[in-house]
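Regression test case RT-17, inverse folding.

Input:
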């Protein structure tokens, strides 16, 4: 990976041989430390994802320690950081470094396929994904679609002529109509233990799923 640079090694490589002293090296390493921080954040946490523990107000955090809170990643700005709520102390005790604790390498694999979407939903909302034939905590049921979309009358005599450029007449009788198509393409079933965690679960779960569901497919959320 050409941009994943080891800045400590780069410092020693770029110093002239007669200047490669500990004092010079430490000074330059301190100078490029913001670049090292940014590189590590991007090529480790952002790319590969994180496993930082959830924030605990009883834990004492040192400067640079990271925690997760509501799926985001935060970093402590100071030592002896105890009991300073993350959201109430942004910019003083904490800084948000990522909106999503899941890495890009994983998220780009997500799509609207049934099993993959089930995995993504369970991973994000704290459920357990299970390979078929077992059922995941959050699971999807596809709704069968009719092969016949429209039915116009029963015979030619009862139908209206429709040409390339015009149409006329009307459809006679009670046989004319449209097949009743299912309102949704699939249903996402969510257990009460997860559903009850949110004040507006349908909106929250739907908005997450819409990131991966192909345009044109419709679904609904049901608690079980």
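Golden output:
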């Amino acid at each position: 990976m050409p941009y994943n640079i080891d800045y400590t090694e780069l410092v020693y490589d770029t110093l002239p041989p007669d200047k490669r002293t500990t004092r010079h090296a430490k000074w330059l390493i301190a100078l490029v430390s913001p670049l090292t921080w940014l590189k590590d954040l991007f090529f480790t946490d952002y790319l590969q994802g994180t496993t930082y523990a959830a924030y605990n107000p009883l834990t004492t955090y040192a400067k640079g320690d990271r925690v997760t809170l509501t799926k985001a990643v935060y970093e402590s700005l100071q030592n002896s950081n105890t009991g300073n709520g993350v959201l109430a102390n942004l910019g003083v005790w904490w800084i948000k470094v990522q909106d999503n604790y899941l890495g890009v390498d994983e998220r780009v694999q997500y799509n609207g396929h049934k099993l993959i979407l089930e995995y993504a939903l369970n991973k994000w909302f704290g459920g357990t994904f299970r390979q078929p034939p077992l059922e995941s905590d959050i699971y999807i049921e596809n709704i069968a679609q009719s092969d016949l979309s429209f039915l116009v009358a029963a015979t030619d005599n009862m139908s209206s002529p429709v040409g390339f450029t015009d149409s006329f007449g009307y459809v006679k009788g009670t046989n004319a109509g449209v097949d009743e198509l299912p309102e949704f393409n699939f249903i996402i079933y969510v257990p009460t233990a997860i559903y009850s965690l949110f004040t507006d679960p349908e909106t929250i779960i739907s908005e997450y799923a819409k990131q991966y569901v192909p345009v044109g497919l419709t679904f609904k959320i049901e608690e079980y």
